[in-house]
Amino acid sequence: QKEVEQNSGPLSVPEGAIASLNCTYSDRGSQSFFWYRQYSGKSPELIMSIYSNGDKEDGRFTAQLNKASQYVSLLIRDSQPSDSATYLCAVNWDNYGQNFVFGPGTRLSVLP
Amino acid sequence: NAGVMQNPRHLVRRRGQEARLRCSPMKGHSHVYWYRQLPEEGLKFMVYLQKENIIDESGMPKERFSAEFPKEGPSILRIQQVVRGDSAAYFCASSASGGTPYEQYFGPGTRLTVT
Fold first, then answer.
1. Can you tell me the distance from the alpha carbon of A94 to that of A100, in angstroms, rounded to the nearest whole number?
2. pLDDT single digits (tens) B18-71
3. Which residues of A63-100 are buried (b: 16+ CB within 10 A; e: fewer)?
4. Which residues in chain A show pLDDT less than 50?
5. Among A17, B3, B5, B14, which is least packed by CB within 10 angstroms?
6. CB contact under 8 A, A31 and B100
7. Partner-chain contact A95 B100, CB within 8 Å
8. How far apart are CA B96 and CA B31, in angstroms?
9. pLDDT value at position B102?
Protein backbone atom coordinates (compact mmCIF):
# COMPACT_ATOMS: atom_id res chain seq x y z
CA GLN A 1 0.00 0.00 0.00
CA LYS A 2 1.64 3.22 -1.16
CA GLU A 3 1.20 5.96 1.41
CA VAL A 4 1.78 9.68 1.70
CA GLU A 5 1.96 11.17 5.17
CA GLN A 6 1.88 14.76 6.33
CA ASN A 7 2.02 16.58 9.65
CA SER A 8 -1.49 16.52 10.97
CA GLY A 9 -1.45 20.16 12.02
CA PRO A 10 -2.88 22.60 12.50
CA LEU A 11 0.35 24.50 12.09
CA SER A 12 0.26 28.05 13.36
CA VAL A 13 2.92 30.62 12.47
CA PRO A 14 3.04 34.39 12.96
CA GLU A 15 2.80 36.68 9.99
CA GLY A 16 6.17 37.18 8.34
CA ALA A 17 7.63 33.90 9.61
CA ILE A 18 8.68 30.89 7.57
CA ALA A 19 6.15 28.07 7.45
CA SER A 20 7.58 24.60 6.95
CA LEU A 21 5.34 21.82 5.70
CA ASN A 22 6.57 18.25 5.52
CA CYS A 23 5.61 15.16 3.59
CA THR A 24 6.97 11.61 3.57
CA TYR A 25 6.12 8.83 1.16
CA SER A 26 6.49 5.10 1.26
CA ASP A 27 7.66 4.17 -2.23
CA ARG A 28 11.33 4.81 -2.92
CA GLY A 29 10.72 4.63 -6.67
CA SER A 30 8.36 7.61 -6.69
CA GLN A 31 9.01 9.99 -9.54
CA SER A 32 7.13 13.27 -9.17
CA PHE A 33 5.94 15.35 -6.27
CA PHE A 34 3.42 18.14 -6.02
CA TRP A 35 2.20 20.69 -3.53
CA TYR A 36 -1.36 21.97 -3.66
CA ARG A 37 -3.11 24.62 -1.63
CA GLN A 38 -6.79 24.26 -0.79
CA TYR A 39 -8.83 27.00 0.79
CA SER A 40 -11.88 25.96 2.76
CA GLY A 41 -14.74 25.16 0.41
CA LYS A 42 -12.57 25.51 -2.70
CA SER A 43 -10.73 23.16 -5.01
CA PRO A 44 -7.01 22.32 -4.77
CA GLU A 45 -4.69 24.71 -6.55
CA LEU A 46 -1.28 23.58 -7.81
CA ILE A 47 1.57 25.50 -6.20
CA MET A 48 4.65 23.61 -7.33
CA SER A 49 5.91 20.39 -8.79
CA ILE A 50 9.36 18.90 -8.23
CA TYR A 51 11.01 15.73 -9.44
CA SER A 52 14.74 16.21 -8.95
CA ASN A 53 16.59 16.15 -5.66
CA GLY A 54 17.30 19.56 -4.22
CA ASP A 55 15.44 22.83 -3.98
CA LYS A 56 13.06 24.51 -6.36
CA GLU A 57 12.03 28.09 -5.71
CA ASP A 58 9.05 30.05 -6.98
CA GLY A 59 8.47 33.40 -5.36
CA ARG A 60 7.92 32.92 -1.64
CA PHE A 61 7.64 29.14 -2.05
CA THR A 62 10.50 26.65 -1.99
CA ALA A 63 10.03 22.93 -2.47
CA GLN A 64 12.74 20.61 -1.22
CA LEU A 65 13.09 17.00 -2.31
CA ASN A 66 15.27 14.29 -0.81
CA LYS A 67 14.55 10.98 -2.52
CA ALA A 68 17.01 9.05 -0.37
CA SER A 69 15.08 10.05 2.74
CA GLN A 70 11.71 9.84 0.92
CA TYR A 71 10.92 13.34 2.05
CA VAL A 72 9.55 16.43 0.38
CA SER A 73 8.88 19.75 2.04
CA LEU A 74 7.40 23.12 1.24
CA LEU A 75 8.74 26.32 2.77
CA ILE A 76 6.69 29.50 2.67
CA ARG A 77 8.72 32.59 3.37
CA ASP A 78 7.21 35.81 4.73
CA SER A 79 3.95 34.01 5.53
CA GLN A 80 0.80 36.04 5.07
CA PRO A 81 -2.67 35.53 6.56
CA SER A 82 -3.82 34.79 2.99
CA ASP A 83 -1.58 31.70 3.07
CA SER A 84 -3.89 30.17 5.69
CA ALA A 85 -5.19 27.05 3.98
CA THR A 86 -4.73 23.29 3.84
CA TYR A 87 -1.63 22.18 1.97
CA LEU A 88 -1.77 18.85 0.17
CA CYS A 89 1.25 16.83 -0.84
CA ALA A 90 0.78 14.52 -3.84
CA VAL A 91 3.08 11.81 -5.12
CA ASN A 92 3.14 10.19 -8.56
CA TRP A 93 4.70 6.75 -8.39
CA ASP A 94 5.46 6.53 -12.08
CA ASN A 95 5.68 8.74 -15.14
CA TYR A 96 2.58 7.50 -16.87
CA GLY A 97 -0.08 9.71 -15.35
CA GLN A 98 -1.25 6.92 -13.14
CA ASN A 99 -0.74 6.13 -9.49
CA PHE A 100 -1.22 9.47 -7.87
CA VAL A 101 -1.74 9.57 -4.13
CA PHE A 102 -2.61 12.64 -2.11
CA GLY A 103 -1.63 13.07 1.50
CA PRO A 104 -4.24 14.03 4.10
CA GLY A 105 -3.08 17.64 4.15
CA THR A 106 -1.70 20.02 6.74
CA ARG A 107 -3.80 22.95 7.85
CA LEU A 108 -1.75 26.13 8.10
CA SER A 109 -2.88 29.16 10.05
CA VAL A 110 -0.89 32.38 9.70
CA LEU A 111 -1.64 34.68 12.60
CA PRO A 112 -1.63 38.46 11.97
CA ASN B 1 -7.17 29.50 -21.91
CA ALA B 2 -10.13 28.22 -19.94
CA GLY B 3 -9.44 26.06 -16.95
CA VAL B 4 -11.11 22.82 -15.98
CA MET B 5 -14.86 23.22 -15.95
CA GLN B 6 -17.32 21.24 -13.91
CA ASN B 7 -21.07 21.35 -13.81
CA PRO B 8 -23.27 21.57 -12.01
CA ARG B 9 -21.52 23.29 -9.13
CA HIS B 10 -24.19 22.16 -6.70
CA LEU B 11 -26.49 19.19 -7.11
CA VAL B 12 -29.25 18.02 -4.80
CA ARG B 13 -30.68 14.56 -5.26
CA ARG B 14 -33.11 12.47 -3.26
CA ARG B 15 -32.12 9.01 -2.20
CA GLY B 16 -32.51 6.57 -5.08
CA GLN B 17 -32.11 9.15 -7.84
CA GLU B 18 -29.24 9.37 -10.29
CA ALA B 19 -26.51 11.99 -10.23
CA ARG B 20 -24.54 13.00 -13.33
CA LEU B 21 -21.45 15.11 -12.88
CA ARG B 22 -19.69 16.62 -15.88
CA CYS B 23 -16.10 17.67 -16.39
CA SER B 24 -14.52 19.44 -19.33
CA PRO B 25 -10.72 19.27 -19.14
CA MET B 26 -8.41 22.15 -19.76
CA LYS B 27 -7.76 22.82 -23.46
CA GLY B 28 -5.12 20.47 -24.77
CA HIS B 29 -5.48 18.02 -21.88
CA SER B 30 -6.51 14.46 -22.58
CA HIS B 31 -6.25 12.92 -19.10
CA VAL B 32 -9.04 13.23 -16.56
CA TYR B 33 -9.09 12.22 -12.91
CA TRP B 34 -12.04 12.15 -10.55
CA TYR B 35 -11.69 12.56 -6.78
CA ARG B 36 -14.14 12.58 -3.90
CA GLN B 37 -13.69 14.64 -0.76
CA LEU B 38 -15.81 14.29 2.33
CA PRO B 39 -16.05 17.25 4.72
CA GLU B 40 -12.84 17.71 6.70
CA GLU B 41 -11.23 14.76 4.92
CA GLY B 42 -8.61 14.29 2.25
CA LEU B 43 -8.95 13.70 -1.47
CA LYS B 44 -9.74 10.15 -2.44
CA PHE B 45 -8.87 9.00 -5.94
CA MET B 46 -11.74 7.42 -7.82
CA VAL B 47 -10.92 6.97 -11.49
CA TYR B 48 -8.43 7.98 -14.17
CA LEU B 49 -9.50 8.19 -17.80
CA GLN B 50 -8.10 9.07 -21.16
CA LYS B 51 -10.24 9.65 -24.22
CA GLU B 52 -12.49 6.61 -24.66
CA ASN B 53 -10.49 4.57 -22.13
CA ILE B 54 -10.68 3.91 -18.42
CA ILE B 55 -7.07 3.57 -17.29
CA ASP B 56 -7.53 3.02 -13.57
CA GLU B 57 -10.81 2.69 -11.69
CA SER B 58 -9.39 1.12 -8.57
CA GLY B 59 -10.76 3.85 -6.32
CA MET B 60 -14.30 3.76 -7.58
CA PRO B 61 -16.97 1.65 -5.84
CA LYS B 62 -17.90 -1.26 -8.07
CA GLU B 63 -21.61 -0.75 -7.65
CA ARG B 64 -23.63 2.31 -8.62
CA PHE B 65 -20.63 4.33 -9.87
CA SER B 66 -19.44 4.61 -13.45
CA ALA B 67 -17.33 7.02 -15.46
CA GLU B 68 -16.71 7.75 -19.09
CA PHE B 69 -14.70 10.13 -21.23
CA PRO B 70 -16.05 9.96 -24.77
CA LYS B 71 -14.23 11.01 -27.89
CA GLU B 72 -16.40 14.10 -28.04
CA GLY B 73 -17.78 15.92 -25.04
CA PRO B 74 -17.05 16.06 -21.35
CA SER B 75 -16.14 13.30 -18.96
CA ILE B 76 -19.11 12.13 -16.92
CA LEU B 77 -19.20 10.58 -13.48
CA ARG B 78 -22.49 8.83 -12.92
CA ILE B 79 -23.86 7.73 -9.58
CA GLN B 80 -26.97 5.60 -9.67
CA GLN B 81 -29.41 5.18 -6.80
CA VAL B 82 -27.66 7.72 -4.61
CA VAL B 83 -27.50 7.28 -0.86
CA ARG B 84 -26.79 9.81 1.88
CA GLY B 85 -23.18 8.61 2.11
CA ASP B 86 -22.59 9.83 -1.44
CA SER B 87 -22.91 13.43 -0.23
CA ALA B 88 -19.49 14.95 -0.85
CA ALA B 89 -17.52 17.27 -3.06
CA TYR B 90 -16.47 15.66 -6.32
CA PHE B 91 -13.48 17.15 -8.04
CA CYS B 92 -12.25 16.59 -11.52
CA ALA B 93 -8.66 17.26 -12.54
CA SER B 94 -6.99 17.16 -15.93
CA SER B 95 -3.44 16.85 -17.15
CA ALA B 96 -1.62 16.92 -20.45
CA SER B 97 -0.31 13.78 -22.08
CA GLY B 98 3.38 13.16 -22.39
CA GLY B 99 6.31 14.61 -20.52
CA THR B 100 6.81 14.79 -16.81
CA PRO B 101 5.55 15.62 -14.39
CA TYR B 102 1.86 14.98 -14.89
CA GLU B 103 0.64 18.15 -13.26
CA GLN B 104 -3.04 17.95 -12.43
CA TYR B 105 -5.23 21.02 -12.55
CA PHE B 106 -8.50 20.93 -10.67
CA GLY B 107 -11.95 22.16 -11.54
CA PRO B 108 -14.15 23.99 -9.02
CA GLY B 109 -15.91 20.80 -7.98
CA THR B 110 -19.50 19.63 -7.74
CA ARG B 111 -21.06 19.59 -4.29
CA LEU B 112 -23.52 16.72 -4.17
CA THR B 113 -26.12 16.67 -1.43
CA VAL B 114 -28.36 13.64 -1.04
CA THR B 115 -31.53 14.25 0.94
1. 8
2. 999 999 999 988 899 999 999 878 899 999 999 999 999 989 999 999 999 999
3. bbbebeebebbbbbeebeeebbbbbbbbbbbeeebebb
4. none
5. B14
6. yes
7. yes
8. 6
9. 80
Q: Which residues contact B1 (CB under 8 A, 6 or more apart)?
A: B26, B27
Q: Where are the alpha helices (DSSP H) in B11-109?
A: none
The sheet carrying B5-7 orders its strands as B5-7, B19-24, B75-79, B65-68
Q: What phi and psi, each to the nearest 5 degrees, are found at residue B52?
A: 65, 10
Q: In whole angstroms, give the CA distance from residue B20 to residue B76.
A: 7
> Lowest-pLDDT range, A84-93, B2-11, B89-98?
B89-98
- Which residues from chain A sit within 8 angstroms of residue B104, using beta carbons? 34, 46, 90, 100
Q: Is the pLDDT of residue B8 over 90?
A: yes
